[in-house]
Design goal:
Elements (H helix, E strand, L loop, with lengths): L2 H33 L11 E5 L5 E6 L8 E2 L2 E2 L9 E5 L5 E11 L5 E10 L5 E10 L2 E11 L4 H12 L5 H11 L8 E9 L5 E6 L5 E7 L5 E6 L5 E5 L4
Antiparallel strand pairs: 1-2, 2-5, 3-4, 5-6, 6-7, 7-8, 8-9, 9-10, 10-11, 11-12, 12-13, 13-14
Helix pairs in contact: 2-3
Length: 246
């Protein structure tokens, strides 16, 4: 066998070996990508996006600077991100439908402010079931709220309001805002129906409201431990109270 032939055989063998290694690595990598889970003992991250196979967001976990703004069917609207540290949820269409947010800090003057909220949104609307804690230097409100909202698409509402706010600051704009905030088909844009919690006056309260959001029954144990039940008319006037004579 001549030297040129031996040289070509060595080249072919080397090529075959390299090709075998490359194919093996790619095959192993693909298999590991499909079969293996990555495990971390500890991880530092500023934002995690949980997405569906089509790329639609399903959940975003983030710090404040990298927090996401409102999203409607995959498109941002309303206001930019950077204000809501926590977890934001999205429905099957990639529209925001609730979340868990929290804040808290002491201010330069020594006072503090803190809040947290866990909310669930009506379809293509805003929150209708939410737990909230709000604290302005000891003035605390903590509770559960259930609300009704008009069946109006939130993106439509936001675009209407943006168009009104782009008008000159005149009586015409104020009138347009009043029309915008009015009930739609007889249904208020938002009406609180139930509140269960503790108010800033340290009362434990249950407020039951009518479809317009007007409290009609109020159950309360005040800061001194005195219980009462009040029945109210549509104007907010107490029509009867238990125990009587309080």
């Amino acid at each position: 066998m001549t030297d040129p032939i031996r040289r070509e055989l060595r080249i072919l063998k080397a090529y075959g070996l390299i090709l075998t290694v490359v194919v093996g690595v790619l095959t192993l990598g693909a298999f590991q990508q499909q079969q293996e889970k990555v495990k971390f003992t500890e991880i530092d991250v500023e934002r995690i996006n949980i997405v569906e196979p089509d790329g639609h967001l399903r959940m975003v976990i983030s710090n404040r600077p990298r927090s996401i703004g409102p999203i409607y069917k995959g498109e941002p609207f309303g206001y930019p991100g950077g204000t809501r540290p926590g977890i934001i949820f999205f429905n099957d269409e990639g529209t925001e439908n609730g979340g868990l947010t929290f804040t808290g800090r002491r201010l330069p003057d020594g006072t503090y402010r803190a809040s947290s909220g866990f909310s669930f949104d009506q379809f293509n609307q805003d929150q209708i079931l939410y737990f909230q804690y709000q604290d302005n230097n000891g003035q605390r409100r903590t509770g559960l709220t259930i609300a009704d909202r008009a069946d109006v698409d939130i993106l439509e509402l936001i675009k209407e309001r943006e168009a009104i706010m782009a008008m000159p600051d005149t009586a015409a704009r104020a009138a347009a805002l009043r029309r915008w905030s009015a009930p739609r088909n007889g249904v208020p844009l938002m009406a609180q129906r139930l509140y269960l919690g503790r108010d800033p006056a340290k009362n434990a309260v249950v407020d039951l409201s009518d479809p317009e959001g007007r409290p009609r029954i109020r159950i309360r144990v005040d800061s001194l431990g005195t219980p009462s039940i009040e029945f109210l008319d549509a104007t907010g006037r107490v029509t009867s109270r238990l125990p009587t004579g309080q």
